[in-house]
Amino acid sequence: MELYRIRHATAWTSTVNIHQVGKLPHRSFSDLSRTYGPIMRLKFGRLNTVIITSSEAAREVLRTHDHILSGRMSPNAVRSINHHKVSVAWIHPSSARWRLLRKLSVTHLFSPQRIEATKALRMKKVQELVKFMDESSKREEAVDISRASFIATLNIISNILFSVDISSYGSGKSNGFHDSIIGVMEAAGSPDLANFFPFLGALDLQGTSKKMTLCTGKLFKVFRGFIDTKTAEKSLRKNPKEASTSDFLDALLDEAEPDNNDIEHLLLDMFVAGTDTSSSTLEWAMAELLDNPITMAKAQAEIERMIGQDGLVQEPNISEFPYLQAVLKETLRLHPPVPLLPRKAETDVEIFGYLVPKNAQILVNVWAIGRDPDVWENPAQFEPERFLGKETDVKGKDYELTPFGAGRRICPGLPLAVKMVSLMLVSLLYSFNWKLPNTIDMDETFGISLHKANSLNAVPVKKNRH
């Protein structure tokens, strides 16, 4: 790997071994930026990669030059299943297919009307999560927070998409689905020599393509079962558009486009983006709160004050819980679901005097920006108070905090994700106190998303209410 810093016609070069990037590239790039500055150009084999590690430079990429830099370089593992040709996550925003899939997603999933229509569903599934925690509390058993929140999120998403639960807390069914989704994200996000030397793609030296094919094969098999069932039901109705349910799959099958292959890949996008990132964000929030008991007590006190001793937890309007809102922002600052936002340059472009060459991959290191000491006081500390009384938001307008991206590539499911995570967190903090059976760590594992390396296990203690 070669590293360049280019300003106009003057350049200096340093060679960096590819092994220096390691298994946590967001951290390695952050360390390198201390030497080479907030805009670095790295040469991995044949691939030019530009790393952005300041909020000012991020604004240039995600806003000023968004029209030029909104493409994405698809990893070899993604190309191995042709996902790059049909996925809203990878195809270019200027294409008609991207606009169609994005419109379908926003209209039938993420519009304010659709989010409001599925409010009761979210409440029901989170109540089931609380019931599971209650049963674990009676047995004084530790709960795997990531797995439990994943099941809740998975069933919310599967009901929105298919009108059925796809998992239950007492079965091992969800583990296979969970493992497949994690596998997809790890295969897509893992450093792969074939991404830098395309002629190695067919050899699959690191097994990422094999892993992607295996994991997506399991998921597509599940999706095809639902598609076939819905299609058969539709063929028996006098009016094919008069469905007994009105879920996302019904809406897709009623459209002239897309075809079944497109639908399978779109469902893959929805599950991967919707389940894993939400459950991992909740796990990080709980981990930070358990590691900071005074902060947890403040969050619980606010919730008690807003809901009351014997109130019913409703889906919170996050603006009515300023401290909880600050907790979530602080969690996303320290643990963004996607630590490296990928973009691709369609033409040569200059950013603050630095040349970004055509076809270069650009990685906005939102993890490093969230810990920039020039922006944040005590950047490594979990301090939600830093957000109180401030308008800083996560919706792509404040470039020091862009965990969901910005511009045309901003995550369309952001409003739904915030509601799901907020409701789960409020419910768990209102209904239970928490104990740790073991010491807690904040070690990470890197895929496309950022996970705790070791699952958070905690014992729920039901609150006594009079």
TrEMBL record:
InterPro entries, alphabetized: Cyt_P450 (IPR001128), Cyt_P450_CS (IPR017972), Cyt_P450_E_grp-I (IPR002401), Cyt_P450_sf (IPR036396)
A Pfam short name: p450
Residues involved in heme binding: 411
Coiled-coil residues: none
Cofactor(s) demanded: heme
Keyword terms, alphabetized: Heme, Iron, Metal-binding, Monooxygenase, Oxidoreductase
Keyword Oxidoreductase: yes
GO molecular function: heme binding; iron ion binding; monooxygenase activity; oxidoreductase activity, acting on paired donors, with incorporation or reduction of molecular oxygen
Domain of life of the native organism: Eukaryota
Family per record: Belongs to the cytochrome P450 family.
Protein name according to UniProt: Uncharacterized protein
Organism: Brassica cretica
